[in-house]
Structures are given as structure tokens and as C-alpha cells.
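Good morning C.,

I know you're traveling, so I'll keep this short. The sequence:
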Amino acid sequence: MAKRQRGGGRVRKKNVVVESNGQAHIRATFNNVLVTVTDQYGNTISWASSGKMGFKGSRKNTPYAAQVAASAAGKEAYDLGLRRVEVYVKGPGSGRESAIRALSSVGLEIATIRDVTPIPHNGCRPPKRRRV
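The C-alpha cells, ready to paste straight into the viewer:
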């Protein structure tokens, strides 16, 4: 019989030294909004999603949920020493602009905003239109 491991210790966060410049990647899909704040090399500093912030179902893809997620990720990165970000936005979701506004309201200076949504050169067939 296998020994039971003692689980009870809290995972302690490392004190990370962060450069003042970084990147913020916002992925706004039809179902969720993911915000990842990285350093210049792409190493993750902090992240948040609207599902992680407690929104479920169709409330996850609202602009307010994107604002809450972006401000949570931005505040954590700001507390670690990040001050200036380049924003990369991907996807067709509704929370793109509100996430960018939330990052600037936290205190992060936005250097550039780039739309990196992949556009197919007539690739896969899109899903059928909903008849509501």
C-alpha cells in the first residue's frame, strides 16, 4: 500500500525581479478572455482569465469580465515592478478594448497595441451560422 503524502503546505511565491518593460497578451475568444503579462523574452509574470476571476458561462466573454481579468493580471505585474507594456491582442471577442483600458488604469504605460489575430488564407471551413 502506498504511503499517503502530507499535503498541507502552501506554495510560496518566489520573489521575482522583473524588468520595467514587458508584453501583455490578450486573447479574446467567443467564450473567454485570457490576459498574460510577460517580460520582454516571453516569460510569464502574471496571468488571469475571466473564468479564473469567477465568471461562468456566457458572462465570461463580457467586456466587464475582461476588465476584471486584465486589471488583476496588470496589478500583479505592476506590484512586481513592471511599468511599460506592449499589448498584443488576438481573437474576435468582445473584451478587447476594455482589457486594454483596464491595463492602463492599473498604471501600466502602454507603448504599442498590435492586433495579431491569425487570418486564414482560405483555410478551414467556418462553423455554420446559428439560426436563432
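Safe travels,
E.
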